[in-house]
Amino acid sequence: MSLFDWFANRRKSVPNSQERPEREIADGLWNKCESCGALSYTKDLRANQMVCLECGHHIRVYSDDRIEQLIDANTWMPINEGLHATDPLKFRDRKKYSDRLREFQEKTGHLDAVETGIGQLETLPVALGVMEFQFIGGSMGSVVGEKLTRLIEHGTREHLPVIIVCASGGARMQEGMLSLMQMAKISGALERHREARQLYIAILTHPTTGGVTASFAMLGDITIAEPKATVAFTGGRVIEQTLREKLPENYQTSEYSFAHGFVDLIVPRTQLKKTLAQLISLHQPQLSLGRSQSEELEPPDTHVFPAQTHAFELSP
To answer: Which of 135, 247, 250, 271 has its CA 20 to 30 A from that of 122?
Structure first.
């Protein structure tokens, strides 16, 4: 018997019970950072508001998490949550728009791409809108426009600061012109909010693009962005092909926007709630003055464009 055969027979004689069993890891227990590749315990990561403990990369979170991060426990009151889109254009691409809506409603548990409501932020009452990127890319359709408009108008009537967390791929193509009209609709409500001397804070997260960037995302009295968020109107490749020039490496990032004056502050997610509370507190004397000067203002019409109402419905 050769030495090779002797070792081969010895390995066969070792009972399988002595082999080390492969350790199973529960699904979702660990999270790998897409930026630095570090593995983090999901519980610790959530405690750090889904910001990588190694490199500070801001992992995308959705509307329910945002509300939990910003609003004091047991103070959140959703408004207009029954609004849902219809299919006025009978649009169809690879599938019917009505089927696509139903698919994302089942997938996300939300009726459309924004959540709106009233709550307290460090005991300060605010009107908050949070866009839901996992619902058709946070695209802005008639429901998003209507819910944000009603939120702003409610904030104006009740003298509340309005905060909108933006995360969107832009206007919703399946609703055509109805979607584009939301840009003017929300902007008009914000102008009345400004005339009433009320505060509006826009928060730009990854990504904020298209018609959202071209309207309410850039109309904040104070504009805050998360680190390294994409902030743009159209894709960088389209711009390069149009201008026939190479764009800067960090173009369309929150840092580039900050350097060129489009963003007032870049605030890490872990410090956002505290920063918002400080900003709102600093504006409280101005908010009080605005209330005394605007008591005689007529409540704004909640249906700025009545012809659009066919694009959405209220759930029973």
So the answer is: 135
φ, ψ dihedrals at 207, nearest 5°: -100, 155
Q: Which one-letter DSSP state was computed for residue 206?
A: E
Sign of CA dihedral 243, 247, 164, 296: negative
Q: What are phi and psi of 59, to 5 degrees?
A: -75, 140
What number of other Cβ atoms are within 10 A of residue 287's Cβ? 17
Q: Parallel, antiparallel, or unpaired: how do β-strands 162-168 and 200-208 relate?
A: parallel
Place of tokens 């089942």: 106
Is residue 260 within 8 Å of residue 286, measured between CB atoms?
A: no
Q: Which amino acid does the sequence have at 303? A: H
For residue 92, give the DSSP letter: B
Full pLDDT tens readout for the chain, 316 residues: 566 666 566 666 655 545 444 444 456 789 999 999 999 999 999 999 999 999 999 999 999 999 999 999 999 999 999 999 999 899 999 899 999 999 999 999 999 999 999 999 999 999 999 999 999 999 999 999 999 999 999 999 999 999 999 999 999 999 999 999 999 999 999 999 999 999 999 999 999 999 999 999 999 999 999 999 999 998 888 888 888 888 888 899 999 999 999 999 999 999 999 999 999 999 876 554 444 444 443 433 434 333 344 576 766 5
Sign, CA torsion 45/133/234/272: negative
Beta strand extents in 122-244 (DSSP E only): 124-131, 162-168, 200-208, 222-225
Asked if 179 and 149 count as a contact pair (C-beta separation under 8 A), the reply is no
